[in-house]
Amino acid sequence: MSSEPTTANASATGKKQPVVCVFCGASAGTSPIHLAAARSLAEALHAQNIQLVYGGGTFGVMGEVAKTLVSLSGPDSVHGIIPQPLVAFEQGADPASSASTIDESMFGRTTVVKDMHTRKRMMAREVIDGGPGGGFVALSGGYGTLEELMEVTTWNQLGIHSMPVIVFNVDGYWDGLISWVNNAVKSGFISENNKGIMVEATSADEVMVKLREYKNVEGKFKLTWDQE
Ligand code: AMP
């Protein structure tokens, strides 16, 4: 277990591997289709030899995607990054203890960080450093998932990164979000160019295709981390 931020994603051969950051619910949802989608995404990541960075939780859609990929590609393929205050809530640790008790052989390497912003920056850094083939993928989730998805979308809009942002729309779960984007473009609050920052996929295989074929949108600002 590491409490120091690291961003290494080298394979056993020392060669860098693409990294996908998955945002998704700490809950499982009421339909088994959401956990099934998490497993299918993990299988697709395994098939493409892609590493996963995620929020480090052991429950819900988060836990499902992590443990499925670990079972296929091994613990080194998954890096969970969790803020200290969430260890008790999202890993089921003893609230009286500050330590993470996660089973890394089941959920992958875990890094405990001081706060939410450190987690998000570290996750994004790993995706960027992993290079082509990687990106951000949102599975089904709640407020936290939406907030994380919007943050990497706005970081893309600001030119802080140019990695793909894919919305895995499981059984129409994100239809409302996609319709909101279309309305915001129509109403002049999102430019036609920036409409393409978030890309929809409806299956794990399509997520992989969209990650590969992602086109960076033109005409963005070119801000850096310090200016966000
Ligand atoms: P949820 O989608 O609400 O189940 O949350 C999924 C993940 O999003 C959890 O690991 C939360 O820690 C994380 N998250 C990220 N940013 C936030 C935020 N601002 N508020 C709440 N949860 C957040």
From TrEMBL:
Record-linked SUPFAM superfamilies: MCP/YpsA-like (SSF102405)
GO annotation terms (biological process): cytokinin biosynthetic process
Gene3D superfamilies in the cross-refs: 3.40.50.450
UniProt GO cellular component terms: cytosol
Stored Pfam families: Lysine_decarbox (PF03641)
PANTHER family listed in its UniProt record: LOG FAMILY PROTEIN YJL055W
The protein, known as: Lysine decarboxylase-like protein-like protein
